[in-house]
Amino acid sequence: MKYKLKLIIGLFIFFFALTFNSNLNVQAENFNYISNDYVNPPLPEINKLEPVIYDGLMLRVRNAANLNTDADTGIHYRYLDDTSKKMYRALYKAALNVYPHDTASFLITDSHMIGVAYGDTEEFTFTADQYQAAYEAVRYDHPDMVQFNACVVKMWSGYTSYTSSDVKVYNTYLCLIANEGYDQAKFDEITAEIQQGRTRFLNDSSITNATGKYAKELAIHDLLLNITTYDYDCLAENTVYNMGHSVYGIVKDGKAVCDGYAMAFSYLLEGIGINSVIVSSQSHAWNVVQLGYEWYEVDVTWDDVNSTDEGILHKYYNLSTEQISDGSAARTRTDASAKFPIAYGTTYNYTYVKELIFKNSEAALVSVTGLTLAPQQLTGKTGDSGRFTLTYSPENANNRSVLWESSNTDVILVDDYGYYILKGPGSATVTAMTANGTVKSSASVYVTDENDNIFVGNITLSDTLLECEYGDTGIITYTVAPANATNKNIIWESSNKYVATVEDKGAEGIVYTVTGPGKAIITAKSEDGSCETACEINVPYVNIKVTYDLAGGTGDVEDNIWQICGRRYSLPMEVTREGYEFAGWYTAKEGGDKVNYWTVVTAKEDHTLYAHWNAIKYTITFNANGGSVVYADAQREVAYGDAIGELPEAAFEGYTFDGWFDAAEGGNEVTATAIVTGDMTLYAHWTIIPPEDPEPEQHADPDPEPEQPADPDPEPTQPADPDPEPEQPADPDPEPTQPADSDPEPEQPEELVNPEPEQSEQIVNPEAEQSVNNEAEQQKAEVSETETGTAISKNDVNDSAQTTANEAVLPADGNIEVAGKEYHVDETGNATVMVAENKDVTSVKIGDTVNYNGESYKVTVVQSKAYKNCKKLKSLTLGSNIEKIGSGAFSGCKNLGKITIKANNLKTVGGGSFKGIKNGAKITVVCKDKKTYDKVVKKLKKAGAKTAKFKFKKG
């Protein structure tokens, strides 16, 4: 059982010892003073968030004001740098709402997630020392919270990129996740247990009977040693996640290691109004205590040894920093602890305190309850200097140690005694406070510039924290101090316009509008640049359930059911419906407003979006199949699901029209009520009209009598007789006929002697005339196309009689087919390349002209959709007479990679005519100069050839 002090006996013994040596010099036993029991906290795991990209313009982004300013801070907080202070506040707020141990997923919108830095233009970074300083400070300022010894810390970092203004805004978040066996309710229960334990401890008679704070400090020291045992199990475990590193270890089990001892001692001293801080090295922790004007170092852990010697039990009690230091690493403060007060006090050492207690002559320690700083407002110029004065309440307060702070050292510097010097124009606040920060007084400082301008020193907003919903609006008003500031104008900004926007109303303040979920910092900065303040707007993320009515279509919408109020819709776009094109999502089944990917979710309740569809229009082509059809009726567009409608009439001389069929030969007849489900080509079917009487053909033969006088030689009339016998007498001399067989020359005169009968036979025979005029298929077979587009008859081109007859023939509808291509020749004689039926074509050459039965027609137009979706098409050549390329003419030709265009006459390139051609297609433009080339290239790119590679060739 631990030895308990008997104060009276001890005092007598000690009193007599003083007569020999007023400075206690104990020959200490060889005790094991443990110095490796302090464990540094592990660095938090940092997770990267997916970047958020906005195309919008962010006019200006400024660092957000400090977050979590409502966090409860203590004396250790004041010694931290700005980075550590941000982490301290976030750690404290996170400790009030920890994640359960079994949490599997984390969202930055969770209430457990606390912002460390928000709206910064640079990523929040910290060192291991800065994190350790923040971690120690928040633990030491809140000894009754064990969350920091029973939780894992995790962090998340990400940014929002505003591409139009090339700005990135960084956000950093932090949370605590409870270790197994703990949750927020358990932590709250432990905090209450620790607080109750302190109350019981301070009500012990050894403390309540002690007179004055000096005696109470000693009584707390001794009672703490009496009830606490060093925790060697915690030492062996060597982890921060052990209650031996906390006050709770003493309350629950009566055991602790160094930081547990130090935190308990500090927590108990706080309970009687004595300030203290906990300092640490890399391996040990102890206290620095303020008594009166002086600071003293106390190591409760090293005083708790198994000894009955009073000197040994108080060897490390109320020493100066110099006295306690022994040159070892155990006493080498960390960078953070090095900022804490240095103990210069020597008066209230253990010997003197015992003497005061024995003599009962301790002057009561009277704490400061009020401070008044003078002057309350200071105005001056750069270089002015002076001293602030302090008035203490009560007047007999003898614990008058204060700390001085300047909010802006570029404006004013102040030392530990209140002396100041004005450094530059602007405004600042000087604050004097007691060591524990509970009592303070401030003065406003304004330094004018060379023009005697008085700068704004303080901006007070009507609101500094707003909890809003999407769509809310409100007013934030402000006041400026001093009232006589030269320029009172305020500049307002929102850190995130996607959360809140501001409208400046001048002296009336601003109107804010909530535009989306998240956090926005509304900053108010004086136009003179001297000060700023901020209001934080928090908008919760509200999930809205959206139901999708596909209206007969199909598609996966499961990933897009949940939307966030105030954010843009995430819409399912991969939806299909046979025969229809998707027209978009709408708010009503019919009509309504269209919802696009940039549409913001404004509804605050679940709702339905409806798919709208446009029926695809398909092309119906009427092929006269040798006959003719009015050009305007040869093609039409009909929407999917509609009937074809009234069918056009067709004509073919010598034939009766049987109707329209779905095949050139055979097939099924198609009527006006047929439903359209795709592109169709309908073919006219014909039945030949048989001749009524064969005799009219003989009458059609002209009278031979007039022909005899027309011919100077009567002999040729005989061959006109159908009887082949007269042809033999036509030879004047039977003998020459034999040589004629060996010599080709006599044969030519035979053809030239009487050309008229051949003409007569063609004219007399109506069937020959009918075949020339109407049988378009035969005519198409008799012509071909050269690479330049010139058509050459497959029959003998020297047959002038045949050519003359064909020249007069062009189908009534103007539609011709040459070399596998269909053309339409208009009344001006210009030809248009029609829609190709062969979608498997691999190469297309469209010449300058096309010849048909000896006539040449300029090819000037490529019809819209002529070669659309010819996916095997690889090369294309367009002749020099092309003036217009119709819309979509070559769209969807995904393998079209080589194109030559003779473009001197090209005026129009229809929309999308080259959309979807091969990426990187090579296009050679042949034209007279670069100016023409540039114009043509511009048109081609606009028509879809954006990724093509262009080449200029003069010609």
Describe this structure in words.
This protein has about 950 residues and is an alpha/beta fold. The chain folds into 8 domains: about 200 residues, C8orf32 fold, CATH 3.10.620; about 140 residues, no CATH class; about 80 residues, Immunoglobulin-like, CATH 2.60.40.1080; about 80 residues, Immunoglobulin-like, CATH 2.60.40.1080; about 70 residues, Listeria-Bacteroides repeat domain (Immunoglobulin-like); about 70 residues, Listeria-Bacteroides repeat domain (Immunoglobulin-like); about 60 residues, no CATH class; about 170 residues, Leucine-rich repeat, LRR (right-handed beta-alpha superhelix). Helix content is about 20%, strand content about 30%. The protein has 22 helices and 55 strands. Strands 44, 45, 46, 48, 49, 51 and 53 form a 7-stranded mixed β-sheet that branches. It is elongated. The protein starts with 6 loop residues before the first helix and ends with a strand. The N terminus is likely disordered.
Secondary-structure blueprint:
Layout: H1 7-18, E1 45-48, E2 52-54, H2 82-95, E3 114-120, H3 128-141, E4 151-162, E5 167-178, H4 184-202, H5 205-208, H6 212-227, E6 229-230, H7 232-237, H8 247-253, E7 255-256, H9 258-271, E8 276-280, E9 285-291, E10 294-298, H10 300-303, H11 310-313, H12 321-324, H13 350-359, E11 370-374, E12 377-381, E13 385-387, E14 389-393, E15 402-406, E16 412-414, E17 419-422, E18 426-434, E19 440-448, E20 458-461, E21 465-467, E22 473-476, E23 478-481, E24 490-494, E25 500-504, E26 510-514, E27 518-526, E28 532-539, E29 543-549, E30 554-555, E31 562-564, E32 575-576, E33 580-586, E34 594-595, E35 607-615, E36 617-623, E37 628-629, E38 635-639, E39 650-651, E40 655-661, E41 680-688, H14 696-699, H15 704-710, H16 734-742, H17 747-753, H18 756-764, H19 766-774, H20 776-781, E42 783-785, E43 791-793, H21 800-807, E44 815-818, E45 821-825, E46 830-833, E47 843-846, E48 849-852, E49 855-862, E50 875-878, E51 884-885, E52 898-902, E53 908-909, E54 922-927, H22 930-942, E55 949-954
Parallel strand pairs: 1-4, 2-4, 6-7, 12-19, 21-28, 29-35, 36-41, 46-49, 47-50, 49-51, 50-52, 51-53, 52-54, 54-55
Antiparallel strand pairs: 3-5, 4-5, 8-9, 9-10, 11-14, 13-17, 15-18, 16-17, 18-19, 20-23, 22-26, 24-27, 25-26, 27-28, 29-31, 30-32, 33-34, 33-35, 36-38, 37-39, 40-41, 42-43, 44-45, 45-46, 48-49
Helix pairs in contact: 1-13, 2-3, 6-9, 8-9
